[in-house]
């Protein structure tokens, strides 16, 4: 699976509709995005807990109402041609792309937003339908396993992924058994991927989607390690690699 990191973030301002449309144009299978919650309880798509880096505003997302966020420009920082891009709501993104592409949702900074798992589960159920979630091509991931456990208790139908930023080769079988009791994906940093590790994770009947590829030279090793997908800022790099690999 080709997973477009924050949309096609190499070509358009991350986590904007422009980036998600670009990902679709480049034939990504999934778009990956990050969520935060506004002062008035709207789930919005933005990576940082502050708006400073990717908009012309200053301050924490949770201190803005959604109406206030819509007044910020989320595109010009990347390039002037994206002036006017806004921070989208998660509902807007799902409504636009659900059924056309998979959607990989990362819950950021859950401690800042008590109850975010319930709010997200409710939104997904309303849009997709509780009975359809397990086959919906919507995945929720986080570095916080306890958060994923809470989400699984609320809705066991939501496919889950555990992000891993440290070496997992040394993780015990008991730990992997614990993780894979609820998650369908274990997604490590790409630097941690080896064929042995992927085989070990696959033995627990879960998939592996490493993050984040920003260069072409990383692709071959990941594909040879038999990962199930790759998160990338440049979806076309992976698409072109796979096309060339098949043709050769």
Counted up, domains total 1
The coarse silhouette is: globular
Order of secondary-structure elements: EHEEHHEHEHEHEHHEH
CATH topology: TIM Barrel
Structural class, please?
A: alpha/beta
CATH hierarchy, class: Alpha Beta
- Spans where pLDDT lies below 50 across 5 or more residues: none
Overall mean pLDDT stands at: 95
So, the CATH homologous superfamily?
Phosphatidylinositol (PI) phosphodiesterase
Main β sheet profile: 8 strands, mixed
How many separate helices? 9
| Residue fraction in strands | 5-15%
Distance between the termini: 20 Å
Just name the CATH architecture.
Answer: Alpha-Beta Barrel
Number of β-strand runs = 8
Kindly state the percentage of residues in helix: 25-40%
Radius of gyration: 18 Å
Molecular structure report:
By secondary structure, the chain is of the alpha/beta class. It has a single domain (2-34, 91-105, 112-247), classed as TIM Barrel. The chain has nine helices and eight strands. The chain has helices spanning 17-25, 66-69, 90-97, 116-128, 145-154, 173-179, 195-202, 219-224, 235-247; strands at residues 2-4, 30-37, 43-45, 102-107, 138-142, 160-164, 185-188, 230-232. Strands 1, 2, 3, 4, 5, 6, 7 and 8 form an eight-stranded mixed sheet that branches. The radius of gyration is 18 Å and the shape is globular. The two termini are 20 Å apart. 43% of the residues are buried. The mean pLDDT is 95.
